[in-house]
Amino acid sequence: MKSSDAPVVAASRSVHKEPGKLAILLNDMRRQKHSYILLAPYYLLFCMFTVIPVILSLVISFTYFNMLEFPRWIGWQNYTRLFLEDDVFLIALKNTLLFVVITGPVSYIMCFIFAWLINDLSPKVRAFVTLVFYAPSISGNIYFIWLIIFSGDMYGYFNGFLMKAGFTEEPILWLQDPKYVLAIIMVVQVWLSLGTSFLAFIAGLQNVDHTLYEAGAIDGIKNRWQELWYITLPSMRPQLMFGAVIQITSSFAVADVSMNLAGFPSVQYAGHTIVTHLIDYGSIRFEMGYASAIATVLFAIMLGTNLLTQKLLRKVGE
Amino acid sequence: MRFVARLASLRLQSKVNRSVWGDLLLFLFLAVFGAFMALPLVYSINNAFKPLDELFLFPPRFFVRNPTMSNFTDLFHLLSNSWVPFLRYAFNTVFITAVGTIGHVLLASAAAFPLAKHKFRGNKILFSVIVLALMFSPHVTAIPNYMVIGQLGWIDTYSAIIIPAFAFPLGLYLMKQFMEQIPDALMEAAKIDGASEYRIFWTIVMPLVKPAWLTLTILLFQILWGTDGGTMIYSEKLKTLNYALGQIVSGGIARAGAGAAVALLLMSVPILLFVFTQSKIIQTMATSGMKE
Questions:
Q1: pLDDT 10s digit of each residue in chain B, 292 long?
Q2: What letter would DSSP give residue B237?
């Protein structure tokens, strides 16, 4: 395919009089018809459920829209309200950024460290340990059990343990006390986060070229840390970049865990995030214009953070 | 100490550069975190078999003493007496998961083939749009999505959950990366024999990317098996198992046993699926990297 196409185009151009750019484009597209036909069903749906919604969201964010009346253009008002008047949004923004700077890197590093440690095990043990670590992320709403562990009465496991061990006399209201809520959500979020990127790292580590380690030993690499930094990490940079995208995106998107564990809204908005704020305005108050502004801000910072991180990761091991 | 010395000598034979204490420390770390990861799961398995009096013991006990199936029988009584029978919830979950997964694997593979193996106008742009889509979560598009689905008249139908799942970007991304490593020679040979691109896709490429099918399946499982219908579905008879779990758990103390039982049922399916597909999934993930 690749090799045969170019000469055909060149030949057809020299025989006929110079065709216009559009004619060439159409001709190319006709010859590559089968590619477009194979692509069409997926991309049609992708446009309907991802591309058009992103554009719609951007447009609606400049309007007042309550689903009943026709949207009214109000310019930047939603955005000024968001940043200047909405204190709850600022709490949500702060919490979300805390997730991004804490659970994001922690989960990313955990994915890598565990993949790296597991890599030294024998294949059977490795398969078992992989299952144990990956299981929480795949078991759906199983994080409900953290509700029982952190239950505010003495039947909660954590309270029961603390009381029995004498750390506290009274059961602590873990999920109702703003002091603890965010930390607990973070713990659960990290517990859930050994997912796709963890598997990608395991695969990446298994495929590092082993002759590189031997060569490294000759070149004077002293310990496993140097081996890690100079050989392993650069060899699996593509997986590292992929894993970063997955972990960053999911750390921005904390919502379900917060809503199910801390309630919605949580006490003093202690577990409020940008996504729960978005859900509040989008599916409860039906202020679609305002909710779209929240979504657009979220979209921009997610994309920005991801692109920036990709740039930084290109420097690993250089 | 002798153990440490033996470990050291083993290490000396295989890899020169590693310290024994470092290894021990790292594996201790692995064990502690392994326990942290596994305990809640082990605990929920135990809970599902605890009689009610053990569920509310003080101090709470981690492991079950007198295992019983009563939670499961309770669950079925509870749900068969409910307005919508348990089997209906189960059917909805299985149906949504099966159709959504099969559809996604087919459409994503069809689109991944030209992206990986054909040279055509727009190839690079179409793929980079998918990579960009990985960089934000579906929450961003939730509201306009609801409007689009409303316009299509799909609110409160299976389609509202199933059809958008077909176009899940991560699946196409992984499938395309995996297909790239198929040698071109295989396809060239078929082309010389006069096979059409569609035929090549179906008879040569598809069988070769079986590991990637399984990976897409497990990813879609994660999304669809756990769906509760959200805002898209409000008819009780179209609701899913996960929704039923939520209802039971919110029933409080009296339902704790049944809740533990349904939680175990829900989590065991994807976990078992992963047990059988793990090696194929790891194989797919080897090609998951982002190129520069």
A1: 444 444 444 444 445 456 778 778 877 888 888 888 888 788 888 888 888 777 777 666 778 888 888 888 887 777 777 666 778 888 999 999 999 999 999 999 999 999 999 988 889 999 999 999 999 998 899 889 988 999 999 999 999 999 999 999 999 999 999 999 999 998 888 889 888 989 999 999 999 999 999 999 988 988 888 888 777 888 878 888 888 877 777 766 667 778 788 888 888 888 999 999 999 999 999 999 887 5
A2: G
Nearest residue, CB atoms, A39 vs list B26, B126, B291 = B126
Query: Residues A260, A147: contact at Cβ < 8 Å?
Result: yes
Nearest CA in chain A to B144: A53
| CATH code, B211 | 1.10.3720.10
Under 8 Å between Cβ of A248 and A306:
yes
Whether B245 maps to a domain, the answer reads yes
Q: Which of A2, A245, A279 sits opposite B119 (nearest CB)?
A: A2
Report the predicted TM-score, pTM, of the whole model to 2 decimal places: 0.87
Smallest Cα–Cα separation from B79: which of B88, B91, B70? B88
- Residue A205: closest CA among A174, A168, A171, A238: A238
| Cβ within 8 Å, pair A135-B37 | yes
Number of CB atoms found within 10 A of residue A163's CB = 18
Task: Flag whether B12 is in a domain.
Answer: no
Hey, are the CB atoms on A145 and B47 less than 8 Å from each other? yes
Which residues of chain B does A60 touch, with a Cβ-Cβ cutoff of 8 Å? 143-144
Structural domains of chain B, count: 1
Are A138 and B270 a contacting pair at CB < 8 A?
yes
CA distance A173 to chain B (A): 17
Q: Tell me whether residue B125 is in a domain.
A: yes
The ipTM (two decimal places) reads: 0.86
**Closest-CA residue of chain B to A252:** B137
Integer Cα distance of B146 and B152 in angstroms:
10
Contact residues for A14 (Cβ-Cβ < 8 A; gap 6+): none
Which chain B residue's Cα is nearest to A239?
A: B289
The two three-digit tokens of residue B123, written as one number: 């190839």
Q: What is the DSSP string of A273-297?
A: -HHHHHHIIIIIS--HHHHHHHHHH
Cα distances from B280 to residues A243, A279, B214, B222, B270, in angstroms, run 19, 37, 7, 17, 15
Q: In sequence order, which residues have a C-beta less than 8 Å from that of residue A273 and are 6 or more positions away?
A: A92, A95, A96, A99, A254, A255, A258
Give the one of B37, B266, B270 whose C-beta lies nearest to A191's C-beta: B37
Instruction: With beta carbons under 8 A apart, name residues in chain A contacting B259.
Output: 144
Residue B26 forms part of a structural domain = no
Q: Report CA torsion sign: A80, A84, A87, A91.
A: positive
Distances (CA, A) of A84 to A70, A72, A78, A87, A294: 26, 21, 10, 8, 13
Range of the domain at B194: 80-280
Taking each helix axis from N to C end, the angle separating B210-224 and B86-117, rounded to the nearest 10 degrees, works out to 140
Asked whether the beta carbons of residue A142 and residue B169 sit closer than 8 angstroms, the reply is: no
The B residues from 99 to 138 touching A (CB cutoff 8 Å) are 107-108, 110-111, 113-115, 117-121, 126, 129-137
A:B CB pairs within 8 Å: 304
